[in-house]
Each structure stands twice: as structure tokens, then as C-alpha cells.
Amino acid sequence: MKIFVFLQSKSNIFFTCLVLTSVLTFSQNDSQNQGSDFWKNVRFGGGLGLGISNGFFSATVAPTAVYQFNSDFALGVGLNGTFNSRKDVYKSTILGGSLLSLYNPINELQLSVEFEQLNVNRKFEDSQFSNDNYWYPALFLGAGYRTGNVIFGVRYDVIYDEDRSIYAEPWIPFVRVFF
Fold it and tell me: Furthest-apart CA pair in the chain: how many Å?
């Protein structure tokens, strides 16, 4: 438990530093190019998810917006909303946000760092289990193949906690789409 609290406080420090860095970078960029149009460099995307099988239902909406500094580097934010239920077992609502950094060393390769902070609220049908409501941080390092506006890849949660994570494994495949 002490290790989780330590990692959580380190991830909160990382999150704060990343936010401050992005604000300073945006401010500096805007003051240097007062005539530039900020919104021309913003790209929107994200993901949708739906899972239905044998009494299980899951739906996710995860919009993302990134500021494209140049063809190699982008920084952005995302939101995540997920609802899960298993008939006669539990229901959960997961809400949160993320900060995302994307780097393309070559056109086809995209490297990413993403800090995600999610509020997990689980309610069990059986009173034998206690309901949960907690915050869960995740810090992902990822790599993907980029073709046009679509990126296929895998990311790894370096602070994965098997008991608290909403993800079954620290390795998570992804598909990103930006317009």
C-alpha cells in the first residue's frame, strides 16, 4: 500500500509538471507568433468502444484534442467516460481525463506518453462485496504504426496495480484516429 501511495504522489507531481509545461509552451508559442491561428494546429480525435456479450455490457467515449507543434510533436488532453455492467453482478461508472504527448521520429512511427487519472465507481448487486469509489492513475508508454490519420499500437502502464486498475493487463492495444 505504501508503494501505491508513493507512486500515486509521484504521478500527481508528473501530472502537475506536464500541465504547467504545456501551458507555458502554449503561452510562449502564442506570444512569439501573435498573428498565428491557434486552432489551425489543433487536431481532434479519440475513440469509441462498445462490448456486449453474455450478460456483460460496456460502452466508452474518449474524445481527445492535441496541439500539433510541428510534424513531429503534439501535446494534448483527453476525456474518458465508461459504463460497465454485468447482469446481477455489478455496475461501474468510470470518468476521468488524460494528458498525452505524441512524438513521430519517422512518419510511420508514433511514440507516446500518456498520464491518465480516472475515478472508478463500482456498485455490486451482492452485499457480500463492498462498493468502491476511488481514483486510479495510469502512466502509459506507447508505440504505434501510423498510416494517415490512424495509429495502431500498444501501450504499457508503468505504474500498473493489478488490484485497482480498470484494465486486465498492463499491456493495452490501441487505435488512435485524429482529424
Answer: 62
